[in-house]
Amino acid sequence: MSxxxxxxxxxxxxVMLALAMALALARxxxxxxxxxxxxxxxxxxxxxxxxxxxxGMRTGSALYFEAALIIAMLGxxxxxxxxxxxxxxxxxx
Length: 93
Known about the structure:
mainly alpha; Helix Hairpins; 3 helices
């Protein structure tokens, strides 16, 4: 019984995360300003990291958790670099 509930919950989480990724991609493409595009990219990498975590829970493999950690670190650095570029016009001083 609890196994079937877990399968339904993981499947529902994957569907909702896929929808959130599609909406973030739409914001990234349509965003009227550069700040909207950066926020869309930030949301997209967070959703992709969560999708990998949910997929790792489904398969039981630790490899997906490590990949999610790498995506989180790279996404954070990319967001900081883009925010610095938008504020000052250059990344490296």
